Structure formats: C-alpha cells, structure tokens
Amino acid sequence: MTDTHRPETDLGPHTDSADHTTWTAEESEAWSRRIARSPLPVDEDAPSSGDMQLEERTALRRVAGLSTELADVTEVEYRQLRLERVVLVGVWTSGTATQAENSMAELAALAETAGSEVLDALVQRRDKPDTATYIGSGKANELRDVVLATGADTVVCDGELTPAQLNALEKVVKVKVIDRTALILDIFAQHATSREGKAQVAFAQMEYMLPRLRGWGESMSRQAGGRAGSNGGVGLRGPGETKIETDRRRIRERMAKLRREIKGMKQARDTKRERRLESTTPNIAIVGYTNAGKSSLLNALTGSGVLVQNALFATLDPTSRKSTLEDGRAIVLTDTVGFVRHLPTQLVEAFRSTLEEVTDADLLLHVVDGSDPLPVDQIKAVREVIMDVVKENDAPMPPELIVVNKVDAADPVQLTQLRGLLPGARFVSARTGEGIAELREHLGEILAWPEAEIEVLIPYTRGDLVARIHSEGRIKASSHEADGTHVEARVPNALASVLSEFAYDTVTA
Ligand SMILES: Nc1nc2c(ncn2[C@@H]2O[C@H](COP(=O)(O)OP(=O)(O)OP(=O)(O)O)[C@@H](O)[C@H]2O)c(=O)[nH]1
To answer: Residue 245: what pLDDT?
Structure first.
C-alpha cells in the first residue's frame, strides 16, 4: 500500500501535502494525537452502507483511493477503512521463547485496544536491535513483503525506536511505522477522561514527539524552502528560522502551557491529598498489571458497579469507593491505573502525581492475573514502577498484599506453583466471588487497629463525633445516657485528641 491510503485528514509529518508546510497550534496538537493515529474501533453499530450519506461514502472512497464512480461503499469496505490494519514486529534479544511470544501477544492486545486489526506478526532473533533499521535490512525486506501481501497500512514495533530507526524502516516498508511507546501513548490518549488525565497524556505525547521532529521536519523544511524560502516565510517565521524550529517552538509553548495547567490541577489534588492523610480511615490502593482485574476486584469487594472492560488500560483516573469491613470499620479502596512492561517513561512521569495515591496508601492490594502465562513477570513490572514512584516521593513502601485473581480461569498446576512462590498471597476470583469473603476478613485482621483507649460522654448535638468513632475506631461498649452517648472504644490518636474534651471522667466530675 502507498501513502494514498492514508486519510487526507492525517496531519502527520509524513504527509507531502503542501497545505501543511506551516502549522497552526491546533494542527500541532492534532498531530500529537496522531503519532499513533488509530481510527475508531469498529463498533457493532457502524452504519450499514444504506445509512451512509453520499458525502461520507465519497470521502471514504477518496481516502481509500477507490473510484468514486463505483457504486456504494460496502459495509465491509466501511469497516476496513475505519480500522487501521497493522503488522507487528519484534526483536527477541533475551529471555525465553515464552517471554518473547508473550511480549508479542501483549503488543497485539495493545494494538487491538488502540483500535487496530492485527494482520500478522514477525519476530527477529538478534543479540541487539539493529542500529539502522531496528530489525536489520534482510528482515526489513521480508517485512515489506508481508506488508504488501497483507495490505497493512501500519507497522508496529515492539520497542522504543530512535527517530532515525523509524525513518529508515519506513523508507523500506513504505507504510507508517510506530513503536510501542507511541502505541501506549495513543491508548492513554483515547482513554483519559478527566481534564488532568488528558493534560498529562498530551504533555507526555509532546515530550515523546519533540526529539522525533527532526527527520520529519527536515523534509518539511525542504518543502518550505521550495515554496517560500526556508528563511522568513510569510509572517510566521523569524529571520533565519527554519520550519522545524517553528514547529519545535510551537510545541514547547504548548508544553509550557500544559505544564502550568497541570500544576494548577495538582494544587486541588494536594488539598484532597491532605484531607486524605488527615483521615484515619484506612486507605487501600488496588494496583496491578493492566487487565489483571483491579476494577473487578474493587466491585467484588465493595459491591459497586465500576466499569469493567476486557481492554488494556480501561482505568486511567483513580476511582475510590468506601466499604465497611465485617467488624464495622470503614475502609477506602482506590482503583489505580494499570501497569505494563516498559511503561513509557514519559507516562510514568506524567502520572506521577496520580500515582502518589499509591505511596499514601496504608496497604497495597497487588492484583495478579493468575491465568496469565507469566504472572511473576507482571509482578516484577508492577513493583518496578511502584518502587520508582516511592523513591521519587521519598516515601516508605506501603505494605503489600498479593491477590492472585482469576483462579476460575487459571491452570491448577500454575496455581500450585504460585502458592509456593507467594506464601502470603490470597487467591480469589472476582468473577465467581471465590475467596472474596475470606479476603475481606483477612483485610480486617491485617489493617492496624487504632491505638488509643477512650471513654467519653458525647452530647447528642455531636452525632458527627459518634459517627467518626464508629467508622474509625472499634467500639467496645456504648449506651444512651441522659446527657449524651456514653462510649468506650479504641480510636486513632488523632481522634482521641479531638475527643479529649468529652472524656468521661472530666465530663462527669
Ligand atoms: N475469568 C475471570 N475473568 C476476570 C476475573 N476478574 C476480571 N476478569 C476479566 O478480566 C478483564 C479485565 O478486568 P478489569 O477489572 O477491567 O481489569 P483491570 O485490571 O481493572 O484493567 P485495566 O483498567 O486495564 O488496568 C475483564 O474482561 C474481566 O471480566 C476473574 O476473576 N475471572
């Protein structure tokens, strides 16, 4: 396939369209969204050709390089046009064959999550990636043949490529080439819903894009040179400034603006964080590899209806739910963003403030997919990210409880091995409910009990304090007296000091 198959709306740097030799800020932003541009995933409700407007059909035909004189675009064509068709390629440098295969299977899942159709995959065994084309020239030619044979319009590489490698490989295969980092950034961009999440991803995308502007920008500078002279194009460029510099400047300006916005949003988050830290209700952060079942476990433990999807990174913005343990104590459970091997550093950086929730937690519930072929690798990948964040925040590592999920779907032999490897772990199925009641009970046992012993008489006007004792402490005895509620309980020190003025001895003396 050739570039004629790329939608004309693609503002990407590969376009030869003379219309885009100078970009507005909006265009730069649109481009950043399109580093790994993926059309909308095929949805079951896609209009059949009968529903489509003539204009839309014509536009789609033009995009696909099909003749507009032909009759209707068929539904199949419509779906194909909306779905990016990709070939995957990986370099297997170390580890076992299972790890290599697993990495490719994960890349396929990532590509599908981004809305692409995976047509084929190639793996090249090498000591290290080729410095010029990532896979080496022989394999690159083979890849070109696969691309031609399958009609793919994009190649996705299972690693982070240098800008030069991306360019060199694109020259051989003649279709768009993206790397794993760009793919993950794109998925995050599609899934971010909150203002902060969106801003964080946009910043990470631009950071990724900036050094990659060179190769693309050079050809654009040449275009600019051919038309208006590379120095001092009409109005937009300063003396001696090339196109590439203009683009970089625009992106940097946009990044500076985003940085300010993110900082502003962080202040609101800090206030929330302070409140969270002041509260003595135990905070449990649910962490784990993407698709391990974190949202499902949150639902199973709290009986809530958080969205569960069989998609990677369905959750980007933390969701908190309150729940009450069997002993009456309140807990707060927070579902966090899923982790993945080689999470782009730009993203870890971008989500650092979101991940602070992890460092503040009283307990980490680390969910592991027991049905995954390599659960131990997942545990390692998650711990690496957590350690990074903890170190960065200069915080102590919160205690961790491993919860092996999906026991209903896991291989019994693997489960036996995991029981040996992870002696303290709990085994559950968020789907069938197996082990969930035991897990709740276990949480009650391991969450530290409040340390201060109190006996108070609380006036009936302060029902709020009685409620706090109920949710934050353990009540030993309580009775309704003429002057108020008489309570004997164990409560956290902070609450004990608030209650000191109502100490039974003082009040009744
Ligand atoms: N068989 C089985 N499937 C499960 C279980 N728990 C979750 N799943 C499935 O695993 C998939 C992912 O579940 P989620 O709860 O969305 O996983 P997550 O870890 O929150 O995912 P991300 O948001 O991508 O990080 C869904 O298709 C769930 O139905 C389980 O106990 N057994």
So the answer is: 78
